[in-house]
Amino acid sequence: MSQWIGWLRRLDKETPTAMVSVVASEGSAPRGAGTRMLVTAGGQEGTIGGGQLEYRAVEQARAMLDHAPGTWRVQDYPLGPLLGQCCGGRVRLLVERLDPAALDWLHDAEPGRMLATTFEADTVARRIFERETATRQSARGDRPEPGTRMVEPVGERPRPVYLFGAGHVGQAIARHMTGLPLQLAWFDTRPEQGGIDGVTVVAEEDIAHCVEEAPADAAILILTHDHPLDYHLTLAALGRAEPAAFVGLIGSSTKIARFKSRLAADGVLPEALARMTAPIGMPGVIGKEPDVIAISVCAQLLTLRGK
């Protein structure tokens, strides 16, 4: 995830700040490479996993605040013997005193691009590239030294979620998506729902175009106030020339059975029907409360990561 990019963009340049980065990890480590947190004298944003590892890292970061901007050091932590953590992995951390004057690269830092980090004697230099080959870092062996260069993705591209319906469940899903690697596009046909932050009101005769325009990696969630509209959107989602990554429909077993029968009669092929997830939500989660459904659906979408 690229949440740390947002933290840097909001950085108070008058407040001395250190950044702790997980350069590499192996074994049972709390967080993976690319995880970061910011540390000031009085607080922090983010976490590298908590426990003694984070305690030591914050301690080092605060000590770094007394050094010149750009100062950096790399520290290795075998989690079992050194920190008494039972997970037994190994983590290599970069701790640096941030230089507010060296953050111009943030203007071009967008998911899908590559971030090149070069260790120099008195600073950590960064540049953004459209295309670069990522480098693999080890938690063992030689530590980075001046001249070492590593390349990583700026961040995971959030999965587009095309959410149709701004009722109680739709609002709960939108609320619980905050902070997740999911990017919301939210639609409803009712003018009165246009007052909800983030909702785009689309005429009923046009809303299927939103389904057709969703990118191939999108998750399409259909949970409107109207069964015929749900059917119209489901038919459009399953009839796309390029299948969406996920098509989910809310509803009772009776509704879903009727939809499947009608979809088949309308020419939807069995392999397309098999791509429909209905009802939405993680199997085994019981409850019809909007927040229960929303959390279950968000968890289900997170299972798509890497697919």
Description:
By secondary structure, this protein is of the alpha/beta class. It has two domains: 3-153, no CATH class; 159-302, 3-Layer(aba) Sandwich (Rossmann fold). It has nine helices and 14 strands. The chain has helices at residues 3-9, 51-64, 79-83, 168-176, 207-213, 227-238, 253-265, 270-273, 290-302; strands at residues 18-26, 36-39, 44-45, 72-78, 90-97, 114-120, 123-129, 149-153, 159-164, 182-188, 199-201, 219-222, 246-249, 276-277. The strands form three sheets. It has a six-stranded parallel β-sheet with strand order 11-10-9-12-13-14, with helices on one face. A five-stranded antiparallel β-sheet has the order 3-2-1-5-4. It has a three-stranded antiparallel β-sheet with strand order 7-6-8, with no helix packed on it. Helix 4 links the parallel strand 9 (159-164) and strand 10 (182-188). Helix 4 packs across helix 9 and helix 5 (207-213) packs parallel to helix 6 (227-238). The radius of gyration is 24 Å and the shape is elongated. The protein starts with a helix and ends in a 5-residue tail after the last helix. The mean pLDDT is 90.
Brief write-up:
The chain has 307 residues and is an alpha/beta fold. The chain is 27% helix and 24% strand.
